[in-house]
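Entry for the shared binder. Reason: the reviewer on the internal report wants the predicted structure included alongside the sequence.
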Amino acid sequence: MSSPRVVLGRVALLISIITPQLARAQSAPGQAQLDEISARGRALAGYQRAAWNATVQLMATNPDLAAVQRYVAYHADSGWVVAFGRLNTQRDTFYVSTIAVPAAVNGQRVDSVFEFHKFDVPGPDIDFLVRATRAMDNAVAALGAKSRPYQAAAIPAENGDWLVYLTPASDFSRSFPLGDDVRYRISADAERILETRRMHKGVVEFDRADRTGPARLAAGTHKTSIRDEPEDSDIYHVLTRQPRVPEIVETKHFRYMVDVDGSIRLLQGRETMVGANR
């Protein structure tokens, strides 16, 4: 039988191991980390908003569907540009048939109206667009079959890798699902998945046409159980739904407010907004 001194020593050792882990788990992220989440979420929202609007407007012109099988959005000086084309069977060339550029409205570029530049002979790209497309394909293959359609976005990370987001598809006119989404970090050559980050479990359906539910609230709210900070897609959710209202994100230990500009702040105590519910 162990002596009381030995038992107490073991308990002290266990406490010394467990306590720092609990402290780390309950330590709120700093504002710099929250700002990084905001930046990624804004990029995701810009990508998907541009891709949706450009696709709808392009399809209204009855294009040759064989020439616009795929698209990749990217941020340029004029805003979010969308390149439409096709990837060859060898997956080493993306043939661009149409470029969608944000139109100038009252002297300012907007992401809701696009000007289309079509090429009689599709132009080949063997670098950025190819890698972006392959990164999305590899992420989709890793996710596997799903019962509902997903939309993909490939955004360059700061070190040259790709952040590929797979989110349940929204029609952007009525429904907006939040949840069951994944972010993959994929190598710069788009061949290797370096990290898989599941952002939410389950799906919350937001009905844009409902003016008696969350659309009338001062803010929405949802709970997340995976991590103790908001996810990039929480920012995307706030920036793309209509009407645009803040969102309270509740984790195991903290509560955050995602404002209508995508910024995040940690709520103190029981601070809340009247009418927030989801």
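Summary line for the report: DSSP finds four helices and 14 strands in the chain.
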